[in-house]
Design a protein that fits this description.
Radius of gyration: 26 Å
Number of domains: 2
Structural class: mainly alpha
CATH topology of the largest domain: Arc Repressor Mutant, subunit A
CATH superfamily of the largest domain: Winged helix-like DNA-binding domain superfamily/Winged helix DNA-binding domain
CATH class of the largest domain: Mainly Alpha
Strand order of the largest sheet: 1-2
Number of strands: 2
Number of helices: 17
Largest sheet: 2 strands, antiparallel
Distance between the termini: 110 Å
Order of helices and strands: HHHHHHHHEEHHHHHHHHH
C-alpha cells in the first residue's frame, strides 16, 4: 500500500507558523494597501456569525448590524444615521428601521436618543451575549491546538482574537502610509481644518487618519461647510476641540444632517460669497500686474 506524504502543519491545520512575519496577518497583507486606505475595514466578531441561530438574527438583519458596526471605531458606541445605514446596506430607510426595531426586540442592541438627530446604538447587551458564548464554547480549533500545538508563538501557533484585534487596532493608530497621494490628502485636510476654524495648526490629530480612510476630501469639505451654518456648530468652530472636528463620526453626522431651508440658503450664500471673493482676488491681481507694467514703462521714459 502506497504511503501518502504528510502535509506540513501549516497546510494541514491552516494556522500561522513562526516563519511567517506578523505583517502577513494584517488587513493590508490579506487584501491590499489601496483597499485599506480607501475604504478601511469593519471588525465583526466571528462569534456573531457562529451563533446567528441562537441570537435569532436573520441574514438581512446581520447586514444592518454590520453597517452599524462599521461605525464603531473605538470604545464609544456607534451612532450612524438611518440614511447612512440605508446607503451602506442598499436597503430603504423603512427596511432599516424594521431591522433595527427587530434587533432591539431580540436584545441585540438598544437605541438611545443622542444629542443630535441620529440614534446612538448601545451594543452592551450584544457584548455580554458574545462573552457568554466565549466562556461556554471553546474557540473552533482550540482543542486541536491545545492537544498537539501550543499557542506560545512556536511553530504551529495560532493568533488569538485578542491579539488579532490589537494588531489591527495598531494598524489604524500607528501605520504611516507612504503613499504620496495619501500624504497630499493629509496636507489638504489640515488646510481645510485651518481654513474653517481660523487656526494655524501644523499637525493633524490621529483621528483624522481614520477619517481620510472613510471619507473623500470633497465630503470632508462639505461637512465643514455644513458646520459653518449649523446652529450648534457655527458659533463654536474656533473653540471646538480639533480632535472632535477630525473624527469620522463628526463628519458622518454633519453630512447626514437635514438642514432647514434657512440653513440651506445660508450655505448657498456662503458658497456664492466665496466664489465672489475669489473673483475679486483674481481681478485685483490682474489690476496689480497692469499697474506694475505701467510703472515700469514710466520709469523707462
Amino acid at each position: 500500500m502506497e504511503k501518502t506524504q504528510a502535509l506540513p502543519i501549516k497546510e494541514m491545520e491552516g494556522v500561522a507558523t513562526s516563519s511567517e512575519n506578523k505583517e502577513s496577518r494584517t488587513f493590508r497583507a490579506k487584501w491590499s494597501e489601496e483597499i485599506e486606505t480607501s475604504g478601511g475595514f469593519t471588525e465583526v466578531p466571528n462569534l456573531i456569525m457562529e451563533h446567528l441561530g441562537e441570537l435569532q438574527i436573520t441574514a438581512s438583519e446581520f447586514l444592518t448590524l454590520t453597517a452599524i458596526l462599521s461605525h464603531k471605531w473605538g470604545k464609544n458606541q456607534p451612532w450612524p444615521s438611518n440614511k447612512t445605514i440605508s446607503l451602506r446596506t442598499n436597503c430603504t430607510p423603512r427596511t432599516v428601521r424594521k431591522h433595527v426595531e427587530s434587533l432591539e426586540k431580540k436584545g441585540i442592541l438598544k437605541r438611545v436618543q443622542g444629542i443630535r438627530k441620529s440614534n446612538v446604538y448601545d451594543l452592551s447587551a450584544l457584548k455580554l451575549k458574545l462573552e457568554g458564548f466565549a466562556k461556554n464554547n471553546p474557540r473552533p480549533g482550540q482543542k486541536e491546538s491545545s492537544a498537539g500545538l501550543k499557542s506560545t508563538g512556536s511553530e504551529g501557533s495560532t493568533l488569538t482574537p485578542k491579539e488579532d484585534t490589537l494588531e489591527e487596532d495598531s494598524i489604524i493608530k500607528h501605520n504611516n502610509n507612504s503613499s504620496a497621494a495619501y500624504k497630499a490628502n493629509e496636507v489638504k485636510f489640515l488646510e481645510l481644518i485651518n481654513e474653517y476654524t481660523k487656526r494655524n495648526l501644523r499637525v493633524l490629530p490621529n483621528e483624522a487618519k481614520e477619517t481620510l480612510r472613510i471619507f473623500s476630501l470633497e465630503e470632508i469639505e462639505k461637512a465643514l461647510q455644513v458646520a459653518t451654518v449649523d446652529p450648534w456648530h457655527k458659533d463654536k468652530l474656533q473653540e471646538l476641540n480639533v480632535k472632535y472636528l477630525s473624527r469620522a463620526s463628526t463628519i458622518d453626522s454633519l453630512l447626514s444632517r437635514n438642514l432647514t431651508g434657512q440653513a440651506h440658503r445660508a450655505l448657498r450664500l456662503k458658497e456664492l460669497h466665496d466664489a465672489n471673493m475669489a473673483k475679486q482676488a483674481e481681478l485685483a491681481g490682474k489690476q496689480g500686474a497692469g499697474l506694475r507694467r505701467n510703472s515700469n514703462k514710466n520709469a523707462i521714459f
